[in-house]
Amino acid sequence: MHKIPLVDVHSEYASLIPQLEARFREVLDSGQFIRGPHYWAFQEEAAAYLGVKRSIGVANGTDALVLALDGLGIGPGDEVICPAFTFYATAEAIARRGATPVFADIDPVTLNVDLEDVAARITARTRAIMPVHLFGRPLPIEPLLELGLPVIEDSAQAFGAPGVAEHGTVSTYSFFPTKNLFCLGDGGLIATNDEELAERIQMLSFHGSRDKTDFDFVGYNSRLDELQAGMLRIFLPELAGWNAGRREAAARYAELGLGDVVELPQDDPGHIYHLFVCRSPERDRIRAALTEAGIASATYYTTPLHLQPALRFLGWERRSLPVTEEVATDNFSLPLWPGIPVEAQERVVETVRAAVGAPARA
Ligand SMILES: Cc1ncc(COP(=O)(O)O)c(C=O)c1O
Questions:
Q1: Is 188 among the domain residues?
Q2: Is 301 found in the same domain as 249?
Q3: 86 Cβ below 6 A of ligand 1
Q4: Pick from 237, 256, 289: which residue ends a domain?
Q5: CA-to-CA distance for 259 and 214, rounded, in angstroms?
Q6: Ligand 1 lined by 222 (C-beta under 6 Å)
């Protein structure tokens, strides 16, 4: 039986291998592996793609969050509001800065942070709001900006989604190999329209220095490698096509009748489907049937961040974020990547329908 993976990154770059090999060779011949020409050029190209003035390449998406917070001067005594239904790094970065993550619940339909709950959690100590464009679905930023606080968009799952980056104070990205825009290892980026903030973050990522001789801040050593920047310059022009391919695959799941038996991710014109996350009270039965049929699936944030052992010191109790905790029990993702074969999607849908006792579609 032919197995169906959750993602197939190799198929995304297979046709680009000759270009990637040539780029690798070029960087090898140059002997320049840190802050070389591809690093600087990618920063400009990524900023232009995102529609912002500046971007800074860093070592990974977690560092991007930490550096954005540091650049804004956020640290001990400060509170930052974020969702608990997200990857751990969102809150980890806040805690790493010595600040306090304050969790807001999510919207049951979009799975993004609930705007009203964010507003309700603002105190005199709140220094920023950190929404996540979860699973590639952009969250409208304007209502958050109206609250009058800096907005740090954790866009790790949403590079190139419409409306992301241009309006918020600063946005951050991960190039982890399963992301919509990925590199061949770890990588990250920070994007902003604020030149002063960009300059500070650029220096923070380089030991708080411009030249590694005079050090103005206590910073970090966190830079996007030259080789990764070189690869990303090959991938970036492909991204619009890849994101369109993801949207096509998501639409096909709906056409194939998957929505008759599970709750599909709610579409939005800007959704770029980093992951295709459905909901069902019968998730465990469905996933067992998928495994049996050789089809990969996954669940997300089954222990939401407010209940994670490392963050227990914050004192959150069970049932304090009811929607988050409910979605943690019933979400699961299905295989999706740009160019996923139709037959694979048909097999997924047939297997899910059979698992919940629905007849196969004619
Ligand atoms: C929402 C979110 N924030 C932050 C990160 C951290 O990115 P990285 O793994 O590159 O450190 C990730 C990805 O793993 C993520 O999904």
A1: yes
A2: yes
A3: yes
A4: 237
A5: 59
A6: no
Looking at the DSSP bridge assignments, the partners of residue 132 are 154
Residue range(s) defining the domain that contains residue 275: 239-355
Domain membership flag for residue 263: yes
Full-model pTM: 0.97
What is the best residue among 69, 157, 275 to mutate for testing ligand 1's pocket, by most ligand atoms within 8 Å of CB?
Answer: 157
Task: Specify the 3-state DSSP secondary structure of 353.
Answer: helix
Judgement on whether residues 111 and 254 belong to the same structural domain of the protein: no
CA 187–ligand 1 middle distance (angstroms): 10
Counted domains in the chain: 2
Q: Kindly state whether residue 1 falls inside one of the protein's structural domains.
A: no
Say if residue 88 is exposed, middle or buried (CB neighbours under 10 Å; 0-12, 13-18, 19+).
Answer: middle
Distance CA 69, CA 109 (A): 29
What is the C-alpha separation between 257 and 343, in angstroms, rounded?
A: 14
Taking only the tens of pLDDT, the chain with its 362 residues reads 799 999 999 999 999 999 999 999 999 999 999 999 999 999 999 999 999 999 999 999 999 999 999 999 999 999 999 999 999 999 999 999 999 999 999 999 999 999 999 999 999 999 999 999 999 999 999 999 999 999 999 999 999 999 999 999 999 999 999 999 999 999 999 999 999 999 999 999 999 999 999 999 999 999 999 999 999 999 999 999 999 999 999 999 999 999 999 999 999 999 999 999 999 999 999 999 999 999 999 999 999 999 999 999 999 999 999 999 999 999 999 999 999 999 999 999 999 999 998 887 76
189 part of a folded domain: yes
- Residue 258 alpha carbon to ligand 1 centre in Å: 29
